[in-house]
Amino acid sequence: MARQPSYSPSSSSPSASSSFLPAHSDDRQPFIANTDKEYPPSSYTNFTKFRPRRRYIYSIAAALTAASLFALLIFGFWTSNAEEESFNLPEDATLQAEHDDVQEFPQSVVIGEPTEKFRDNLQPNLKYITSWISAGWTNDVMTYANLIYLGLLTERIPVVPMFVPSHIGGSVPPIDFGEVFDVPRLSKAIRLPVVEWHQVKNRSSEALDELGCWNIWQAVQEDEKRPRWSIVPQHLKLDISYTTVPSWVKVIPGYRHDLHAWFWSLAALAFPETRAENLVTPLESPTLKVSLPPDEQMLCYDYLYYVCANQPYEFDFDYSPAWRFVGRHMRWVPKLEQLADTYVRKATGIEDGKPTPPWIAIHVRHGDFKNWCNDVGIPLKECFASLPVIARRVEEVKAELKERKGIDVEHVIMTSDERDPEWWSDVVKMGWFGIDHSKTVEEHGAWYPVLIDAVIQSSGAGFVGTDRSTMSTLARRRVQSWRDGVVRTVKWGKPDSDDH
Ligand SMILES: Nc1nc2c(ncn2[C@@H]2O[C@H](COP(=O)(O)OP(=O)(O)O)[C@@H](O)[C@H]2O)c(=O)[nH]1
Ligand SMILES: [Mg+2]
Predict the structure, then answer these.
(1) Rounded to an integer, what distance in angstroms lies between the CA atom of residue 448 and that of residue 168?
(2) pLDDT tens digits for 50-81?
(3) Which ligand is nearest to the CA of 142?
(4) What is the pLDDT of residue 500?
(5) What fold does the segment set 334-490 form as a domain?
(6) Geometric angle at alpha carbon 68, from 62 and 71, rounded to 5°
(7) CATH node for 118-329
(8) Cα(160) to centroid(ligand 1), Å
């Protein structure tokens, strides 16, 4: 049985649907399949071999034992210190320590080069886990972090698909997870190899693979009488037969306004006994009309955005396990960081040879958030926070940076999905900098405005975000975890929403 949620659905919690505001935008957009375009080539094709760090430590420990008890005591002190450090030091220091280690898995996690059918490339003695996405890009980042966290819980190798476009236009080709996030660094940090689908199955394969997966969507909501739709299985040429998960995965049984499932309820279904006890007749796959139980080697779930350990929309909370154990280790690929740096330098007009100054980033999310204002008939000018309201939070961030870290941060950079040129000229009048994306799509591709903005949001000394935006939520988490930075969130919905 699922336990009772730790809050009441009727409370004023951000996830209570009584509010007209989105708990978090899960703004599904129609997707246009674009499978005949070549994907960008991956910069990472060689598999790193991993070996658990513990084995390395054990062998050193054995050698030290043989040498002398004194040496062992010293070693014990060192390892316990090292463990402690890995939780107390800023993350960069932790990662530095991890980079010094050579970690190898006993074998390559796939057999070799990507194959036409994915099963031909799976190691028979290893188990894998995968899932699909279908929302805004940041929701999708969270969904993949949840997938990888479930990989840790079930001790399975996460096989991560690509990112597919939503707000940036349905005809844009997908981009590899590994073009955005540093996968080898992630694998090392979490001590679990993470692979991408294109490393398992050939991206140009025309072979359709049959696969049995769990269908969570029909156990957590009743409006759609089908598993969560995603374009990803089409890209991967998968023909999926779904088995609906038991209703006890749902966090708030019978409550139609929340869609979350428990991490551990889903993890339980990865194990043979609980799996066997919960098998029901699978839905036929759409193309080959096969009926398959959930695959035991390539465990898969339709959609893992709405998953939590203790309460819904958990990325908002400091203890979020998916953030702490996975998300915070999903660092940008260096190429993206360098690119963002050139945009910041250009925006702030820093001369060549001078270091990039620290900045405070703002994320103002407008775009489709206007729908919620329109639905309740509040004019946009009153519904969205005004620039002076945002400036109050920027000043708070400046003051706290000065007080807590002794630094004066002068540069303020605005990122937003707002397109109104008048609004942007008001931004400049505030003394803030905008990022010039007029050539970004042409020069780097349609994914890059949002990627560069996300990197800029996460790389400042401080951050001011928009309430209810997952893009702001992750930027806030990153600035806190990676920069020990100062963050604020601007509320919106009514003229006085942020008056506190
Ligand atoms: N370039 C750019 N795009 C943005 C910005 N804010 C929102 N967007 C676009 O709108 C999408 C919002 O969806 P999502 O990432 O899921 O975040 P959320 O909807 O705010 O929770 C982003 O993925 C971008 O495509 C921004 O500051 N810069
Ligand atoms: Mg979204």
Answers:
(1) 10
(2) 333 444 444 554 455 445 444 443 333 333 33
(3) 1
(4) 87
(5) Rossmann fold (3.40.50)
(6) 80
(7) 3.40.50
(8) 21
